[in-house]
């Protein structure tokens, strides 16, 4: 089948490359000429494991190409996916749908036969209705159906998630569109991937509900971690104790500095605003958003306490800047709030991240970026582990101890054991676990 992917960002590029790998012919369309030119030259604008190789192989096989011409990409397509950004709107927190609606207008002028227009972007309930209205208003005679097909990709594991999904949610009550969507995803049937058909509005809400629930699990275990520190418990044991209950599950029960990234912050906020507009407020989600925002700066206070109550004039080494490992995504990363708060307190920051430094430079000023974790530790009064990259899990701790001005480590991802760190002479603190000195 022929597919047009409007938007060659994270979701559009990964989805387009994976569809091409299934054997479909895919054209990725983006208004950013520089991005399209780079993609044509084999340069991938984001870091995602395996994506560069997947794009290259499908470009070589002539199943994947890139253009700035929407008309060229859409004209003969069986399905057109809208995969543009829906950032939080300034001022009120609602999802900014201007890119989605502009894509709908452009698609209306380009389709030449029956076309399934698929909203892949994360959008509030009712957006599909408005997309359909815009296309109908722009091109009254057009033959089309509007479908919701939300993405459930984890950054750092997006290709596996697309090819081996837990579920594929398709929102449509149009039988012809249902057949097209079934054929698009037919290559996954060998894996018995559950194709769940719902109404369009149900599909739109499912995406937000999923992310809000996961954000709630993260925030819940973070608050339990705070309680563990006060009462002498171990949050990792608590997480294991409740996670082994099949009704709860072990995933997203890892205590840390709070959630970030491109999805959870904006999606929880958008769900909260939508619910308020409909007079059905989601109080749990409202609390999750508030607690998570406060937690990030609270992590800076944890560093300050570890240094005796003040960071003024002290050097703090930061390991990990991106919101999670295996990505270069800095959107709403906890490191931003932590570093900013430490700088407000007078700290000097040195930081290292395996992939995120260039993106970090766009959002963090007055930071000395270094090319390995040992340079971050050298001369530092404290070393803070913010992102749990694999490269940080087996550091030469004796070497780091000898390099630091003060052997203070604040592990916000609990990747080391308190007894081991203290036996090496570190003053060590982590999340939801009492140190030996506290016991």
Low-confidence stretches: none
With strands numbered from the N-terminus, the spatial order across the biggest sheet is: 3-2-1-4-5-6
Q: Please tell me how large the radius of gyration is.
A: 24 Å
Q: How confident overall, as mean pLDDT?
A: 95
User: So what's the oligomer here?
Assistant: single chain
Annotation field: number of helices: 17
Helix content: 40-55%
Class inferred from helices and paired strands:
alpha/beta
What gross morphology would you assign? elongated
Give the CA-CA distance, first to last residue: 63 Å
- Strand residue content: 5-15%
Total beta strand runs? 14
Q: Largest sheet, if any?
A: 6 strands, parallel
List the helices and strands and how they pair.
Layout: E1 2-6, H1 10-21, E2 25-29, H2 33-40, H3 51-60, E3 64-67, H4 70-74, E4 79-82, H5 98-110, E5 115-119, H6 127-138, E6 144-148, H7 158-163, E7 168-171, H8 175-184, E8 195-198, H9 200-231, H10 235-243, H11 264-277, H12 283-306, E9 315-319, H13 334-344, E10 348-352, H14 357-361, E11 367-369, H15 373-377, E12 382-385, H16 397-403, E13 408-411, H17 418-423, E14 427-429
Parallel strand pairs: 1-2, 1-4, 2-3, 4-5, 5-6, 7-8, 9-10, 9-12, 10-11, 12-13, 13-14
Helix pairs in contact: 1-3, 5-6, 9-10, 9-11, 9-12, 11-12, 12-13
């Amino acid at each position: 089948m022929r597919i047009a992917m409007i938007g060659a960002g994270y979701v559009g590029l990964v989805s387009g490359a994976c569809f091409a790998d299934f054997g479909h012919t895919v054209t990725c369309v983006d208004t950013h000429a520089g991005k399209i030119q780079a993609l044509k030259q084999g340069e991938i604008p984001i870091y995602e494991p395996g994506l560069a190789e997947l794009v290259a192989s499908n470009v070589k096989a002539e199943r994947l190409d890139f253009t700035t011409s929407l008309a060229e990409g859409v004209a003969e397509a069986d399905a057109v996916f809208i995969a543009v950004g829906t950032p939080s709107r300034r001022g009120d927190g609602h999802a900014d749908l201007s890119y989605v609606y502009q894509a709908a207008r452009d698609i209306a002028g380009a389709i030449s036969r029956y076309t399934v227009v698929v909203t892949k972007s994360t959008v509030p309930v009712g957006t599909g209705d408005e997309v359909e209205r815009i296309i109908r208003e722009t091109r009254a005679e057009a033959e089309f159906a509007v479908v919701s097909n939300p993405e459930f990709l984890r950054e750092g594991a997006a290709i596996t998630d697309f090819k081996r999904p837990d579920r594929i949610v398709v929102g449509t009550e149009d039988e012809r569109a249902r057949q097209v969507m079934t054929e698009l995803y037919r290559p996954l049937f060998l894996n018995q991937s559950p194709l769940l058909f719902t109404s369009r509005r149900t599909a739109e809400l499912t995406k937000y509900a999923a992310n809000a629930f996961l954000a709630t699990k993260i925030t819940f275990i973070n608050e339990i971690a705070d309680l563990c520190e006060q009462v002498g418990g171990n949050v990792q044991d608590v997480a294991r104790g409740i996670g082994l209950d099949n009704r709860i599950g072990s995933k997203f029960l890892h205590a840390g500095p709070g959630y970030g990234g491109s999805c959870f912050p904006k999606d929880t906020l958008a769900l909260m605003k939508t619910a308020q507009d409909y007079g059905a407020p989601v109080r749990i989600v409202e609390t999750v958003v508030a607690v998570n925002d406060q937690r990030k700066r609270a992590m800076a206070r944890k560093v300050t306490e570890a240094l005796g109550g003040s960071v003024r004039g002290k050097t703090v080494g930061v390991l990990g800047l991106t919101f999670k490992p295996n990505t270069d995504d800095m959107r709403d990363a906890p490191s931003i709030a932590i570093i900013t708060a430490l700088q407000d307190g007078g700290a000097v920051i040195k930081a290292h991240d395996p992939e995120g430094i260039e993106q970090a430079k766009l959002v963090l000023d007055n930071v000395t970026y270094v090319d390995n974790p040992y340079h971050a530790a050298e001369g530092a009064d404290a070393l803070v582990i913010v992102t749990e990259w694999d490269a940080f899990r087996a550091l030469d701790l004796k070497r780091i101890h000898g390099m630091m001005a003060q052997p203070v480590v604040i592990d916000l991802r609990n990747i080391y054991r308190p007894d081991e760190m203290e036996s090496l002479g570190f003053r060590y603190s982590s999340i939801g676990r009492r140190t030996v000195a506290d016991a």
